[in-house]
Amino acid sequence: MPFFDLRWQDIPDILIVAYIIYRVLLLLVGTRAMQLIRGVLIIALIGALANVMELRSLSWIIGKLLGAFIIVIPILFQPELRHMLEELGKGHIWRVEHDEEKLDTRADQLAKALTYCRSQRIGALCVLQRSTSLKEVWRTAVPLKADITEELLVSIFWPGTPLHDGAVVIDSESLIAAGCYLPLTEKTDISRWFGTRHRAALGVTEMSDALALVVSEERGEITIAVGGRLSKPLNESQLRSICNHYFTDEGREGNFLDRLKEEIHQQWPGNDSNDE
Fold first, then answer.
1. Going residue by residue through the chain (276 aa), what tens digit of pLDDT does each one get?
2. Domain 99-267 adopts which CATH fold?
3. Phi/psi zone of residue 217: left (φ > 0), alpha (ψ -120 to 50 degrees), beta?
4. Where, residue-wise, is CATH 3.40.1700.10 in the chain?
5. CB neighbours (10 Å) of residue 67?
6. Alpha-carbon distance 150 to 143, whole Å?
7. How far is residue 214's CA from residue 201's CA, in Å, rounded to a whole number?
8. How far apart are alpha carbons 224 and 242 in whole angstroms?
């Protein structure tokens, strides 16, 4: 019999087992069980090296430890194993989470947060980072690297909280930082009705290709700054459309920014930064 006798049945067999292991590990990510698995793998690696080097005492001890783990693991990590079996029963272990679903969730959460802030007259400033890095802006702020959720954004901008006066910087993956202080626009022909948030939104979009969404607490309006220009108030459908475009590959390409600038110019041709 040859040493490597591979049948055609072995190929789907290997792929199925590998996929099951992959899905199980996804369920265990972020739990104590994953930390235990790492520890067991390290011990197993040490045991393999001990066998290769013929360290008999060490090999015997590690072999006994691995044998004991088979009994101890189900006892110590019964909640995690029960959760994994529940997910298996619900069919979640086979469900593939598409990146599009994550992007839609982020866009929806951002739009909901800004809409809520508008309804409650809560001032907010969200800067959407694109190809130009805004590290100079957020490196001295409060780093978060958190999921983009409505609750987190609203709590940041809630009046009286330590970070409510600053801006948040967001990329396509996460909420990077909060409490960011942006450079103000150098334009002098801006209406006095625009406050610091609008001036900061214009300033950051003049120095980069970022987008800046502003909620005015005085007027209860949402506007967007692009390329140093400020739009008229956005309705909910326009806001959601902008958020959806941003969290896609199309939204990070130059043609999206060009179309958005053109749309602002076409819909509000007389809109300059000094308009009320």
1. 455 577 888 888 888 888 877 877 776 666 666 777 777 788 888 888 988 888 888 888 888 887 777 777 777 667 767 766 776 666 655 555 545 555 578 999 999 999 999 999 999 999 999 888 888 888 889 999 899 999 999 999 999 999 998 999 999 889 999 999 998 988 777 777 778 899 999 999 998 989 999 999 888 899 999 988 888 889 998 899 899 888 875 445 555 666 666 666 555 444 444 443
2. YojJ-like (1 (3.40.1700)
3. alpha
4. 99-267
5. 10
6. 18
7. 7
8. 9
d(CA 215, CA 114): 7
3-state class (DSSP) for residue 227: coil
Q: Does the pTM of the predicted model rise above 0.70?
A: no
Q: Which amino acid is at 238?
A: Q
H or E element that contains 201: helix 196-207
Q: Indicate the residue type of 9.
A: Q
Nearest residue to 88 via CA among 26, 31, 13, 36:
26
What is the identity of the amino acid at 97? E
Short-list 179, 167, 118, 175, CA closest to 146: 175
Length of the chain: 276
Return the C-alpha torsion angle 31, 35, 36, 39, nearest 10: 170
Distance (Å, rounded) from C-alpha 190 to C-alpha 238?
A: 24
Neighbour-count burial of 183, counting CB atoms closer than 10 A to its CB (0-12 exposed, 13-18 middle, 19+ buried): middle
Torsions phi, psi for 142 (to 5 deg): -95, 110
Angstrom distance (rounded) from CA 270 to CA 224: 16
